[in-house]
Design brief:
The complex is a heterotrimer of chains A (789), B (162) and C (152). Chain A is built from 20 helices and 28 strands. Chain A has 789 residues and is of the alpha+beta class. Chain A folds into three domains: 211 residues, Aldehyde oxidase/xanthine dehydrogenase, a/b hammerhead (Aldehyde Oxidoreductase, domain 3); 320 residues, Aldehyde Oxidoreductase, domain 4, CATH 3.30.365; 146 residues, Aldehyde Oxidoreductase, domain 4, CATH 3.30.365.10. Chain A has a seven-stranded mixed β-sheet with strand order 3-5-1-12-9-10-11. A five-stranded mixed β-sheet of chain A has the order 7-15-14-13-8, with helices on both faces. Chain A starts with 13 loop residues before the first helix and ends with a helix. A five-stranded mixed β-sheet of chain B has the order 2-1-5-3-4, sandwiched between helices. Chain B has two domains: 77 residues, Ubiquitin-like (UB roll) (Roll); 69 residues, DNA polymerase, domain 1 (Orthogonal Bundle), CATH 1.10.150. In chain B, 32% of the residues lie in helices and 17% in strands. The termini of chain C are far apart. Chain C has one domain: Alpha-D-Glucose-1,6-Bisphosphate, Chain A, domain 4 (2-Layer Sandwich). Classes of the chains: A alpha+beta (789), B alpha+beta (162), C alpha+beta (152). Chains in contact: A-B, A-C. Chains A and B meet through helix 1 and helix 18 of A and helix 2, helix 3, helix 4 and helix 5 of B. Chain A: This is Xanthine dehydrogenase family protein molybdopterin-binding subunit. Chain A: Pfam families: Ald_Xan_dh_C (PF01315), MoCoBD_1 (PF02738), MoCoBD_2 (PF20256). Chain A: GO terms for molecular function: iron ion binding; oxidoreductase activity. Chain A: Keywords: Molybdenum, Oxidoreductase.
Chain lengths: 789, 162, 152
């Protein structure tokens, strides 16, 4: 029986957030704490000729100023990269050092140069302003494709043509070339998937605290994965023993990928505290966040898709330049490769696929995973191609998709679907999601309404997108073979207290996803106990044994499964104790509704009694260890593959070029659902970010590598009245290879929505016969110019 | 250079010396340890720091603490009364109007101000009233529903809100 | 940021050119400039108080007048460093007599911004630059008519 799973249980964590008692890193005040301000390069590329810190150090309240030279002299390592990609010829990617503060040269606007430690945040900032730096400005390059051209300035001297790596995936290129040369029709598109800035509402923050008396270090940080941060910090950057370091990620105000990575500031605060022996806090302001939080996307792509006479895809050829920024962020090399190239099969039976891709250094902020990470880029590519192809071949865009869908398979009775690009999909019925979405939008009526509207000069448009993603990362052996320098299992410890209350320690980290509720629902139902009896602990390396953190929609699929493994162990052990107490054979017992019952009798014993017996083992099975505390590592057998169909309906104002998003329909299949309220919330948030990329957001660099829209006055984020209420629904195809049958919902909204909106705007603009693809974001200016050119 | 100010925060009068340049939000967070009010930007665009000053929603990052002398301030910590959640808090919980919780205090303060002036706002009016507040988690969908819930609750306190 | 425009003044190219080469006059007519001191031949140090949209502050900058071809043209090089960002601009100024006692001043150049100035409020900066340019031309015209009434 389930009391909780599948129900919209209200969130356990809400109370503290609603009463102002959430505890975010910047809320933490430690005794004797000092404040840090980081002086950053105003130039994208510049040599440091000299730094004069004397005026700053002489200011009252300033404790110390450290520069890049101090860091270099101390011999600490730089920020490491967690994923290795090899060049096509087998050479390892270029992996230049990424120092905590630079000593010689700044490589992007925002590169840290010096850190001031002072009594207050304000004094630290004033002193930072008093540091005199003489710069020699050098030419910079911000555009990924341009950066690989001859004669462009180099970001790192040992990376010729600014190439970090080149890479390919799929069928042999000759086979794809052949397929395209024989195609009845080839659709070609060149476009940019623009750089976006994650903008979690809580700016990053870190407190480093070295306690000399115990020789222990504590780092409080805004992280999506405290354990990985600890590992990288200890083993690669500072060389301090891991068991002496505690990393706490308390309440974290959103991440969307940007807080996965180990950042220089985290190590820097520990490094400074190691020297000054007091806690030191750094909190980013928004302006700093725009410059230094890892950005997302930024691909320049040429794609060619070939079709036969009936509209079946016969081949897909892709060439992409992916911008990695100035340094390699933790997972940067994985995003455009294994999280992007592998998704180019989409939902279609494309028989031949080949992608050529370059990872490129530029004088810009590092680029890494941002909600969806690679999968939105793949989906945008495929779904724009499908729409343009449908137009060119005079076919209905929905029909063209249906024609090419992979047939349904459940992954149990039918095998998984082997793609041309390495992955094997787990289960799916792709027709079902599109069918439902078409019903919801009323597609047949819409085309009539659109025709009517056009007669009256109103520009209505509809856009489709069907997507698949690979989530629940990932089987460790697989990712290891692909270059990951970490395993991607998860850890779940379940500790039954003597009174039958349950504490669960998970390596996943919640920064808005509601793990404290969803995980508790799973535990309460499996053990047949009230939700209130379950506590979920996360985010502290001192209490949670280990973990790989939350990203890639993996928490429930991987972290939840680890907890289930521990629950199974508890139920097994409980059965042994119950058999002893009930004087029955273990195999004659069944566990349901929180008690073990001798089958066919009314003899039973409750979970709480068994828990107590385990800790007070007076009358106890011989040879069995007391206690009830199990920890499990769950390493998934495969990725999970959520998918869905999104439809946008827009109206474009002919006079202003303004796009009004009138309706947004999303039908997603994320496998089984534990808490529909939370899943819906995840979809909503993802949709807003995906729509944001289509219509509003985009980092802009000028030719000197200056980020010219690095504030909320300049970078447009979707506001409440930019969006409609969303119309969402689900189909449920359980994941066949994890115990919960879940697939993950965190990124879905962000992956499907972007191309749906762009396709809708292009559809609205159809009367203008616009041939050229419009670049995102589709600002009123761009749309207006397209209508008037 | 410091100024002595007296403000009533969540019903309690406090007198403190503040530096001339101290922003109200830093006064609340650092001096009074009311860390429920958040700082999400440095250009007064995000609204995470919204509080009520003399009953009106104000971005506490865009004014100096010294300017608040004599004012009556309500922060998120002062929303619930006698252990009872304010209808807006209840609405956010019932309708899942928050995820990471960082924008939530400011959102709720903006909503309280809206509902004071318009007890039965339409969806469009709610969306427009939230113009000054960013949320990156919810896509605003459930925030709108949360405020509708609160409006219902305020208008018909005795009825259970479905 | 592109800086480009022109304006006609009721004076000879010579008069205008000389006024533009005179530090005191320049200090008087340039919006926001509080002091302008010569630091060498054709180089100046200026202190300006400017409010550019969200960004306001006191800016100290170096000016250099190069490639002087009296009374037709010169190149104005501006370099400004401050804690809120740096500006470097090269602006080519041309003076062409279009009639007796009428001269068209044209300028064409580019300003490179970096740091906070570039990141914050760049979108409003070109508008601000236009306003400042208009103010400058107005002040120059006022100065011209003053000089005419009270010849030195």
């Amino acid at each position: 029986m389930t009391n909780y799973i599948g129900k919209a249980v209200k969130r356990v964590e809400d109370k503290r957030f609603l009463t102002g008692k959430g505890r975010y890193t910047d809320d933490i005040v430690l005794p004797g704490m000092l404040h840090a301000y980081i002086v950053r390069s105003p130039y994208a590329h510049a040599k440091i000729i000299s730094i004069d810190t004397s005026a700053a150090e002489a200011m009252e309240g300033v404790v110390k100023v450290y520069t890049g030279k101090d860091i270099a002299d101390s011999g600490v390592g730089g920020v490491p990269c967690g994923w290795q990609i090899n060049f096509k010829n087998g050479d390892p990617m270029k992996e230049p050092p990424h120092p905590l503060l630079v000593a010689d040269k700044a490589r992007y606007m925002g590169d840290g140069v010096a850190v001031v430690i002072a009594d207050t945040r304000e004094i630290a900032r004033d002193a930072g302003d008093a540091i005199e730096i003489e710069w020699e400005e050098l030419p910079a390059v911000a555009h990924a494709k341009k950066a690989t051209e001859a004669g462009q300035p180099l970001v790192h001297d040992d990376a010729p043509n600014n190439l970090c790596f080149d890479w390919e995936l799929g069928n042999p290129k000759e086979e794809v070339d052949k397929a395209l040369s024989h195609a009845h029709h080839v659709t070609t598109l060149e476009f940019t998937n623009q750089r976006v800035i994650p903008n979690a509402m809580e700016p990053r923050s870190a407190i480093g605290h070295f306690d000399e008396s115990t020789d222990k270090y504590t780092l409080y940080t805004t992280s999506q994965n405290p354990h990985l941060t600890r590992l990288l910090l200890c083993a690669f950057v500072l060389g301090i023993p891991e068991h002496r370091v505690r990393v706490v990620a308390p309440d974290v105000g959103g991440g969307f990928g940007s807080k996965i990575f180990h950042y220089a500031e985290e190590a820097l605060m520990i490094w400074c505290s190691q020297r000054l022996k007091v806690p030191i806090k750094w909190t980013s302001d928004r302006s700093e966040a725009f410059m230094t939080d890892a950005h997302g996307r930024d691909h320049v792509t040429k794609a060619e898709m070939g079709f036969d006479k009936e509209g079946h895809i016969v081949g897909l050829r892709i060439n992409t330049h992916a911008n990695l920024g100035a340094y390699l962020s933790t997972f940067a090399p994985a995003v455009p490769t294994w999280l992007h190239g592998t998704l180019l099969q989409g939902l279609y039976t494309t028989p031949k696929i080949h992608i050529d891709l370059c990872g490129v250094f530029t004088h810009t902020t590092p680029v890494d995973a941002y909600r969806g990470a690679g999968r939105p880029e793949a989906t945008y590519l495929l779904e724009r191609m499908m729409d343009v192809a449908a137009l060119e071949m005079e076919m209905d865009p929905a029909e063209l998709r249906v024609k090419n869908f992979i047939p349904p398979f459940d992954g149990v009775n039918e095998p998984g679907y082997q793609t041309q690009v390495a992955l094997q999909y787990d289960s799916g019925d792709y027709h079902a999601v599109l069918k439902r979405a078409l019903e919801m939008v009323g597609y047949d009526d819409f085309r009539k309404e659109q025709a009517e509207a056009r007669k009256q000069g109103k520009l209505l448009g509809i856009g489709f997108s069907t997507y698949i993603e690979a989530c629940g990362i990932a089987p460790s052996a697989v990712v290891g073979a692909l270059g990951a320098r970490a395993g991607l299992y998860e850890v779940g410890q379940v500790r039954v207290q003597p009174t039958g209350k349950v504490s669960v320690y998970t390596g996943a980290h919640s920064h808005g996803q509601g793990h404290e509720t969803t995980f508790a629902q799973v535990v309460a139902d499996r053990l047949g106990i009230p939700l209130d009896d379950v506590e979920i602990v996360h985010g502290d390396s001192e209490s949670v044994a280990f973990g790989m953190g939350t990203y890639g929609s993996r928490s429930l699929a991987v972290g939840g499964s680890a907890i289930v493994k521990s629950l199974d162990k508890i139920i097994d052990k409980g059965a042994k104790i119950a058999a002893h107490k009930l004087e029955a054979a273990e195999e004659d017992l069944e566990f349901a509704d929180g008690k073990w019952t001798v089958k066919g009798t009314d003899k039973s014993i409750a979970f709480g009694d068994i828990a107590l017996t385990a800790y007070v083992p007076h009358d106890y099975p011989e040879g069995l260890e007391p206690g009830m505390d199990f920890s499990s590592f769950y390493d998934p057998a495969n990725f999970t593959y959520p998918y869905g169909a999104h439809i946008a309906v827009v109206e474009v104002d002919q006079d202003t070029g303004q796009t009004k998003l009138k309706r947004f329909i999303a039908v997603d299949d994320v496998g089984n659902v534990i808490n529909p309220m939370i899943v819906d919330g995840q979809i909503h948030g993802g949709l807003a970010q995906g729509i944001g990329q289509a219509l509003f957001e985009g980092a802009m660099y000028d030719e000197n590598g200056q980020l010219i829209n690095g504030s909320y006055m300049d970078y447009t984020m979707p506001r409440a009245d930019d969006l409609p209420s969303f119309e969402i629904d689900r189909t449920v195809t359980p994941c066949p290879h994890n115990p919960l049958g879940v697939k993950g919902a965190g990124e879905a909204g962000c992956i499907g929505s972007t191309p749906a909106v762009v396709n809708a705007v292009m559809d609205a603009l159809r009367p203008f016969g616009i041939k050229k693809d419009l670049e995102m974001p589709l600002t009123p200016e761009r749309v207006w110019r397209a209508m008037h050119s | 250079m410091s100024t002595r100010i007296t403000v009533t925060v969540n019903g309690q009068a406090v007198t403190r010396d503040v530096e001339g340049r101290t922003l109200l939000v830093h006064f609340l967070r650092d001096t009074l340890s009311l860390t429920g009010t958040h700082v999400g930007c440095d250009t007064s665009n995000c609204g995470a720091c919204t509080i009520l000053m003399d009953g009106q929603a104000v971005k506490s990052c865009s004014m100096l603490a010294a300017q608040a002398d004599g004012a009556e301030i309500t922060t998120v910590e002062g929303l619930s009364q006698n252990g009872e959640m304010h209808p807006i808090q209840e609405g956010f919980r019932e309708e899942h109007g928050l995820q990471c919780g960082f924008c939530t205090p400011g959102m709720m303060m903006a909503a309280v101000d809206l509902l004071k002036n318009n007890s039965n706002p339409s969806e469009q009016e709610i969306r427009e009233a939230l113009e000054g507040n960013f949320c990156r988690c919810t896509g605003y969908h459930n925030i709108v529903k949360s405020i509708q819930y609160a409006a219902k609750k305020i208008n018909e306190p005795e009825k259970e809100v479905a | 940021m592109q800086l480009k425009g022109s304006h006609r003044f009721p004076a000879s190219a010579h008069t205008i050119f000389n006024m533009l080469m005179d530090a005191d006059t320049l200090a008087k007519i340039t919006p926001g400039v509080s002091t302008l001191e010569a630091t060498g031949e054709d180089t100046y140090k200026a202190i300006a108080n400017v409010k550019l949209g969200p960004v306001s502050g006191s800016f100290s900058g170096d000016l250099e007048v190069a490639d002087k071809v009296a009374p037709q043209s010169f190149l104005l090089k501006i370099k400004q460093n401050s804690k809120i960002g740096n500006v470097s601009a090269n602006v080519q100024i041309g003076l062409q007599e279009v009639g007796p006692e009428e001269t068209e001043l044209s300028f064409d150049g580019k300003a490179n911004l970096s740091g906070l100035l570039a990141r914050t409020g760049q979108r409003v900066l070109s508008g601000v630059a236009n306003t400042l340019t208009k103010q400058f031309f107005q002040a120059l015209e006022d100065e011209l008519s003053q000089t005419r009434q009270h010849p030195a």
